[in-house]
Amino acid sequence: MSINPHMTVLGAIFLLLAISSQSAVALKVSFIDPCTVADFPALCRGTIKGQTNVNAATDVAIRELMKRTRHAKEIAKKEMKRDGGVATCLSNFNSAFDNLDKALTNIKENDGFSLNINLSAALTDYDTCSDAMKETRETNNVFYKSAGVLYQMADNCLALSTLVKQ
């Protein structure tokens, strides 16, 4: 029994086509749910509300984070002592809000590099808030927990930004 070399080549081509079509399906599935890249996918999905376009999903996620940051700033102003974790958070939330506003502009301008920088800066602002709350031992209040959610949302925004088309 001899092996036909043409059949071997055809078999190899068929195998490559099958593998590449599976890869294309896997790639398509990952863009149906942009939150597959997020560290907190359930929170991400709840935030982007079904958006499958990565630019739109990132925009929606940033706007929701800005809305929640605005709300956290209002709470911080009411609870603020002269110094302490909440005061630090208020300052950092103002900075984060400015960075998020710049990030929205970056999306419109298709500037992925600046988008990542501004979202990284916002993430650092939220992390600094959490650290300040830990240092002052103000970790048993609702404000500390909400700061943690803001950090997770910012982390998700940064993950989504890696998919934004440039």
Order of helices and strands: HHHHHH
Number of strands: 0
Number of domains: 2
CATH superfamily of the largest domain: Invertase/pectin methylesterase inhibitor family protein
Estimate the mean pLDDT confidence. Answer: 83
Q: In percent terms, what proportion of residues is strand?
A: under 5%
Described by its quaternary structure, the protein is single chain
Please name the CATH topology of the largest domain: Butyryl-CoA Dehydrogenase, subunit A, domain 3
Q: For the record, what CATH class of the largest domain applies?
A: Mainly Alpha
Largest sheet: none
The gyration radius over C-alpha positions equals 22 Å
Q: What's the N-to-C terminus distance?
A: 56 Å
Give the low-pLDDT segments: 14-31
Broad structural category: mainly alpha
Residues in helix, %: over 70%
CATH A-level architecture of the largest domain: Up-down Bundle
The helix tally amounts to 6
Shape: elongated
